[in-house]
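INFO worker-7 received task bundle
INFO bundle size: 2
INFO processing item 0
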Amino acid sequence: MLILSQNKTQIVVLENLSSIFSDASAKIRCNYNQNGGGSELARYDNREQCAYVMEYIAISYENGTKTCELPSAKQVAENMATAKAHRSNVSTSKNRHGGS
């Protein structure tokens, strides 16, 4: 799988990486297998957004996606807000209608 960095300046081949991780400053970084060097792939507003994107990368890999484009912080915030609103609506709907 190819990973396109958030600022679209890097394409990284997942198979050439030893790890992808988020650091304390809300950046997603990677380490390379060959030389032990690393690179920054994306910056986010907080660790919660990083966790959301890390899950997105894992799901993309599991689904056999060929290219995973890392989203902007704004896109992540919007997607997280939409998902939270959907979860809220589902639980409210279940409570109103006696669902389990």
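INFO item 0 finished
INFO processing item 1
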Amino acid sequence: MLLLQKVICENGNTKGRRCGKDRVAAAFSLVFNRPPVLFTGDRFPCCAKDGVKNGAVSAFFGFDDTTGEIFKALASTDVSVRASDGKVVGIAKEYFFFVNEDEKSKAEKLPYVRAAAAVRRAERKDGYYPLPDPLAKITICLDDDDSAADKLCSLGAFVWAVVADGNGERAKTIADRLKKNGAGHCVFYESEEEADGDGLKSFRADERLFLKLEGIAASRAGVYSKGVASVGRTGSKTDRIKRESNLYAALSLRQLLLCCGFDCAESGEDAGAEFYRLYRDGLRGAQENCRMREILARREHLRWNEYMFACGISPASKKTYLAKGERFVAGRYHVNLTTWDGLEEFAKDEAARTGLGESDTDVQKYDFEIADEAGAMLAANGMKIIRR
């Protein structure tokens, strides 16, 4: 079954911080509220649904600031994992951009594209911790409406379609073409009002959700200024990305819970105790000797890697790290952009270099924090863990 969801995000003003925050809020609304199609069926560890290639595909029609922000939110939060040869690995995600000539050059300058290219170049050199594989597969197509629809029909996947402002008629044409191809349930909405009463809807700026996620981010960050995460331009790029990282971690909480049969909401029966019992003891059928807590931490590190790539950050070499004496170098490189095993190697090297114990140089602990503290962070902001 091919699921086409039309998403319109209105930018409002074309200038100023207000517009930027609206784009971010709209992107967050899409990511947080969309139906969890990836997680129906198999329990934890989450896997691609049988017969669905790589889980789900996101298709973008047109390219503007809003679709760019939505891509960043999707790439930075929605990570599925599976067990492979005794390890937890990420499932590749596919993104298609169907654009015209004017939009093509903008799409090709996505920070993620630049960061992925930097990883490929680093693979040909020595002196790096084990390099992570970027999970996003990005295809930029100069395509007409019919061939775009044919391509989507051939994927055999759930498709989330994100439509840039001004591309409404084109999206309608593609939707009609998909229906003719027998692509299953295909819905197009011109406006938010048309979506009333149906499970699929347009997504616009949700200020209330954005502020709630800011509150969760603030509760896990040391020093955090609400209202500047993601769209603020105060402070250095490094400081801004650190603040923004907490906001995307908060946004990822719902996907983290969904992948093991839970959810978060303001109402419903509290299932926090059940979640943390399974979190400590593991789920039947989960990897041997790898509890749910560790699997979620590994997933969080994969998600953090994806967020850094989406910001255009690439791995720092050991030489660069030692020369600068900081893990995040000039807002462009990060030495912990590595695999899970690479984090262990880093901690050992740091212990040997500084004379500290490995518990003091451990950086994996940051990946455990988000699930460890999920219940308390949600409760502090009027939400709870519930059964899905």
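INFO item 1 finished
INFO post-check item 1: The first strand starts at residue 4 and ends at 7.
INFO post-check item 1: The mean pLDDT is 76.
INFO worker-7 idle
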